[in-house]
Structures are given as structure tokens and as C-alpha cells.
Design brief:
Chains A, B: Its EC number is 6.1.1.21. Chains A, B: This is Histidine--tRNA ligase. Two copies of one chain form a homodimer. The first copy, chain A, has 20 helices and 16 strands. The first copy, chain A, is an alpha+beta fold. Chain A has two domains: 249 residues, BirA Bifunctional Protein, domain 2 (2-Layer Sandwich), CATH 3.30.930; 89 residues, Anticodon-binding domain (Rossmann fold, 3-Layer(aba) Sandwich).
Amino acid sequence: MINLPKGTRDYSSIDMSKRNYLIQTIRTQFELFGFDSIETPSIENISTLVGKYGEEGDSLMFKLLHSGNFLKKRILDFLKKIKNNREIVVNNVEKCFIEHMSNKALRYDLTVPFVRYVVMHKNEIIFPFKRYQIQPVWRADKPQKGRLREFYQCDADMISYSWSLWEEIELIQLCDEIFTKLNFPIIIYINHRDILRGLVEIAGIKNNLWKDFTTSLDKWNKIGRDLVKKEMLSKGITSLSFDKVAFFFDMKENFYHKEKHLTIALQNSEIGKKGLRDLSFIYRNIKNISLQKTKLEWNISLARGMNYYTGTILEIVPFYNKNFISIGGGGRYDQLAHSFGLNNIYGVGISLGLDRIYLAMEHENLFQTVSNYPSKVLFINFGNEEVLYAYKIIKFLRKKGISTQLYPNAEKIGKQFRYANDNNIQFVISIGKNEINKNKIRMKDLQKRTEKEYDNINNVVNQLTKKL
Amino acid sequence: MINLPKGTRDYSSIDMSKRNYLIQTIRTQFELFGFDSIETPSIENISTLVGKYGEEGDSLMFKLLHSGNFLKKRILDFLKKIKNNREIVVNNVEKCFIEHMSNKALRYDLTVPFVRYVVMHKNEIIFPFKRYQIQPVWRADKPQKGRLREFYQCDADMISYSWSLWEEIELIQLCDEIFTKLNFPIIIYINHRDILRGLVEIAGIKNNLWKDFTTSLDKWNKIGRDLVKKEMLSKGITSLSFDKVAFFFDMKENFYHKEKHLTIALQNSEIGKKGLRDLSFIYRNIKNISLQKTKLEWNISLARGMNYYTGTILEIVPFYNKNFISIGGGGRYDQLAHSFGLNNIYGVGISLGLDRIYLAMEHENLFQTVSNYPSKVLFINFGNEEVLYAYKIIKFLRKKGISTQLYPNAEKIGKQFRYANDNNIQFVISIGKNEINKNKIRMKDLQKRTEKEYDNINNVVNQLTKKL
């Protein structure tokens, strides 16, 4: 029984025409905004990736076995190691195993490899550096609707030695342009990690619980207030602390109302006030410049899963299906290069989930105008002599940019016409003995059900390239 | 110390513009010839891939470790298994290990996954099925110049329930169009596995030595006659057998001369005669249709490494550097679907090595006309008020399809101009307090070193979109 690994899938040519349409639309806007295309390898050293995504990320990374002769040596080394140390088997056989068997993994996102790229190539790069990447990433998550183990991300990021909130504004404008071109209204939820830091401060939650706090808070919209509270209490956050700030996460009012409330609440938190100032700058300028298909909404419970975010955070959902899966996200990560030994360098970016945008657009029936660009012409195969005669015309049409197929065998004519029909090929050209003798080209239009004989190849080209 | 795994590399935006040019050229021709785009996942079940590429292939496949909680269970299962059976450790610990630790691998080529695709989707596919794929593959080969561990292949294949030599002719024409468009002359070496079968027959080499024979023969051009002979003898082929056919592998004469010789030599080999007939049909028709930048040459020592080839085989090398690495290859594989349980289905295809074409074209300095499509315009950042004022112009230019950047910070003007210069951005627009008051747009052309003030945004657009 042949099948595919769990969480992976094939893409047919119909799927591909829609995917290529999405990629082309996104790529065009990335380039109009001045982002450069780069690519990084699928495989990174484990040491580059580990610790950047939290514990769950480390365990869901696809790790590659050593290969060739080296593999056998490492197996024997591992067996020797644990034979001499029973403790390992009991306590951390997995860790010891991975250390021996693997030092490479498939990339888990595009952000960490990009920052690794910047650090490695810092002497050739012109800063501020704006790049985009459209490549697959891999996560051994439990597969479910909208969650594949291999999926494409479309990332645009800016990295520089100084930072500017105009970068966030540009990224929001960029998303608006992309989704406007796709005719797909979205909501961008925005929040700021420094505001969350401020709330943690006034709630009296200890610093060492920060990661636990954000990880649980990020589930607010999915599992609700009560379960988030339960999870936070289990991590050691007190009920009193929780109640001090929980009110804000449920606020449904508009931006200015939330701003007023939080300005009062955070008046003694320096970091909280800084977060508020940043957010206010972004929001007011965006309002001024205006958006098209995008609603920008402050969601105070937005925390984002990745460890590496430091400032603004963003999440994108479909406007008419807020509860649909998130189709993109991003934020500021001013410390990530630091973990690779490069200081005072600031990053911010967005990441669009190609497969999720695809799914959401299918769901809302937004691919109506995308066609499967089939071939334009099929040449009937009447036998070797006839094909050889016709081949110069086939070549000529292709030179003119007309996608042209030759049926490979001299099968029954009906079968060959059926092939054209099933593949949405509009025109069929027949050059049999008769046509060769008369020096004619016979062409049938399967859509209009008309047939005509041509004396001149240029008239055929004119007919084929005629616009409606 | 941060680095990349052995045999992998980053691609800068300059690299990417050349790669995208290659991909675009290849894709366009694939589509003009009527091939459809599909994609398959990077990860396949090991059972799908194993045994298709020969022993070396199996060992050079990148295998993925099981992940999550399942991994620990499998480690403990493996340890238990070998504890209870010392024999395994001595004899085949590696095999037992892989069985426990992995069932997935990165694809090794695009052909086997494609055939797996056809077998899995046979009920939705319209045959004859022509598809192309441009995706990376992974091999744990020893890295060296032109041999990466992750590299892109560009494959075009046809699969159907009947076969036709016009498919081979189409593929050769397709290569000729691609390399003509790239202005890159090539040689396509052609041979036929049935001719080799015929030679094996008349040499009296036993059937069970067929794989060894082709594997060694394939090295003829690299290591030479003497070393191939030595290797064949070591596999059990007799010196007498070798000498009976070695003469043909060194033949330097033209096609018709070779054909004459082999027609005599193979007169008693049915399979050999069939191979000759096929090759003659392809060669004569190609000569008749003619080629542009391609020389088609019969190379009797060509055998191809993959196990799965059955008929015609092809290999592509640069015309002016025959001894450069091979930049592509292909052939007929009429039995491959059979190994997945689908009978009487025939396949043929070509595979172009993107990274090798890149390398060969760099070597011959053929990328001169490819430019790095930089942004057209940089807006100087004079501060928040000025940027907010200018932003409507930035938006307008992007809407007009002009790639436009905003410098993110209000840094020193000189630094901002240097950024434009270093990035080959031709135009710099300055809108400071002065320009706002006068309602003007000031634009400098860094190439022509001219500066001008504009009253009207449409005049700016005209200037920016003006063709030379």
C-alpha cells in the first residue's frame, strides 16, 4: 500500500495554479516594497535552531539521522556510552541518543535561519537589510485541518542597527496591499510585548514566570478565560495576580478606550508606558495613512507563541471568519541576533502561511478568477510521416509563445480529441495526408465548435493569439 | 561559531536573481511544451524510495528521526531488541536501528516521487500525463564543487499507458529550446539501454552481472578504460567478455558509422536490434527537425547511474566544457510504476540540475544580461511629520508598479543617500519641510546626477517609467 507520510500532501496542477497565483501576488508586493529575495537551505545545524522556539518547538523539530558509514560508528558509540552508564538509560536516554545520532534538523521557521544568515553574512550586507523568503518549513505537529507537517511560509523582514516604528507601519501596509490584491478582507490583531510586561509588573507576577504567562495567555481566544486561569495557577501565578489584569484581556472597546484605561493602569510601569507609546504611534499613523481591506484591531490578549518576540506583535485572521485558523503573524525580535553573538541589531517581520491563506480563500470561494492555464493547441498524431511534417508548425507556434502539445501516439482520433477536451485545450490542429497534399492547416475550435482550413501559418497564429 | 551543515549554502539576492532567471526560462519552455506544474512533499516514506537508486542511493538518503514522545518509545524498543539478541549488534545493528528510528526520508530525486504520485492519483489523472516539477532534492554525497547535499532539479516527464519515441524527440527539442534561450550551447549524449543489453548478450556476460556492468561502464569517461576493466573483472566479468565489446565504447566516429558497426555486431541479438531501431528513429527525426544550440551525440559508454532506466538514456554537458560536470540527464523508465504495483505504464523524462547549470553558466560568463532588479526609488526620511506627508506618494508609486523604499530612520542625509547608492537605487525623492511648504516633490537621479523639482506626481511617475 503506497501512501504519504502523515501531514504531507501532493499538489495537483489545479492546486498549483492557485498556489502560484498566491505566490506571485505576494512576491510582487514584497518587491514593490523593496524586499530582496534570498534563500537559505532546508537543513540547519541543530545548534542554530534549538532553544529559539521553546521546549515544544525543540521536540517538534524534524531531526536528520547521520548518514553513510558515520552512522554505524555513532550507533556503536551510543551503545557503548549507555552500556557504561545505566543512569543515562533511566534519566535522559533521549537526549544522549539525539546527541549521538543527529546534528542537523529541517528548519522550523524562516526567521531564525534568516537571522543566522544576517549574522554569517554581516560584512557583505547593506543595512538596513530588507529581505523576503518564500520557502517550506517543517514541524512534527499533530496534523489537522490547516496544519500540515510541511508548509510554505512567505516572510518579509527588516534588520538594521537602529530601529524605527515606520517598519511596523510598512509591514501593515504591505499586508493590506497583498490582501487587497487578493480581494480578501482581513483583521490584523496588534499588541505589544512591553504592554504585557507592564501588566505582569502591576500584577506582581515574578519575572521567571514570564514565559509561562505568555504561553498561557496566547490561548485566551482559543480556550477562554477560565482555562487560561487554571493553567496559569498551575504554573504558580496567584489568583490575585491573575484577577488584577484579566479584565484587560476581555476588553471589547475601541482602541482609544483601551488606551485610556491602560494609560491609567500602567502609569507606574516604565516598560508598560513605552509599549503604549509605540502602539499608539503605529495605530495613529496607520489611521492617518488608511487601510483598504484590512481592519487593524488591538487585541490585548495576543501574546504569540515564539520565544523570540520583544516588541510589537501581529496576527492575521480572515475578516469574515475570525475563528478560522490564523493565516499569518509576525512581530519585532530585537534580541534574536544576540543569541548568535551579534549585538545591537534589531529585527521585525511578518510571516504569511501560504497553505492557510489557500484554505481560507477556498473556504470563501475567492479563487474564481484563477484559471489552470492549459495548453492552447493539440496536434493530432496521424503517424510518423505526418508528425514530422507538422513538427515545424509545432515549433513555430511555441516560438510565438503558444503552448502546444503533440499527442504522442497515432491512436484513434476520437481518443485524441477526448484528451484535448479533458485537458481544456481549446484548439486541435489536424494535419493528415490530405492536408499535406493540399498544403493546408485544419484547426478546430472545441469551445465554439467551429472548424476551418488555413493556408498560412500566420493566420493560425493570429487566430490563436486573438483576444476576446 | 555559527555555520551551515556541510554541503548546503545560502543564496544572496544577487544569486537569486540569476537563479530566478534560470527557473523562469525553464518553466516557460516546460509550459510551452504542455507540461503541467505539480509538487510533491519533500518527505516520503522510506518504503517508497528504498531500492530504486541502488545500494549507494539507499545509504546516501537523508533519513528523519521519529519525533515527539514516539521517539523515546522507539529508543527503548530498540535497546530491548538488541539486548535480547547479541547477534544483531554484531551483524546488522545499522539495519535494525534504522527500522526502529525512522520511516521517512527526504526525497532523493523527483522521478520516484512523481511515479508514486501517478500511482496514487491514477484515477484523477488524464493520460498521457505530462508534468514538470522544480523542487530541491537531498543526497548525503561527499560535498565537492558542483555537488551540494541540497540542490534543485527541474524535471519534465511524460507517463502513459502506451509509449512513443516522439516523447524522446520532444524532450530533446525541449532541452534545445531551453539552452538556446539561455544562449548556452550543449551536447546531449544519447544511448539506449537495450543496445547495452545486446552488447552484454554478445559478450556472454551473465544477466545477474547487468547492474555491476552498467555501474562500472558509467564511469568510462571519468576513470577510463583500464580502471573500468579492472572494476568489471573484480565483479566477475571475464577479460574475454570485456574485450569482445570494449572496442565500441571508445568509438569516436559519427552516428552512421557507429550504427553500421553495431548493426553487424548485434545482428543476432533481438534486444540489441530493438535498441538500435529506437535510437535510429530518434536520431534521424531530430536531424530532420534540426536543433539550434544543441549537438546530439551517440555515446555508447553512457549507462546512467539510476537502476530504473530501461530504454533511451540522455546526458547533458556544456558544449565548450565536455569534461565539466553533467548538467542534466534523463531517460525512459518503463518498469518503475511496476514496482508500485501498476503495470503497463511507461515513463520518460529529463532532469536539469539547476545549481550545475548555474555554475556552468557562471564559468562561461553567461549571466551578463541578468540584473538584480533593485528598487527604483528611495524616499529620504526627514522625520515623522515629513514621512507621514510623503507616505501617500509612496503608496501611489507602488500602486503604479514602481518598487519604492522608505528609509526607516531619520538618519543623516548622507547615510541615506549612500544606502540608495550601495543598493543601486537610481532615484531618491526628498520631501522635507521646504518641499511640503512649496508643495513640490524633489527627485534626484543618481545615475545621471541630475535633480529636479516636480509639481505633479504624474510627472514623477512618467519620469520613473520612461524607457531609455
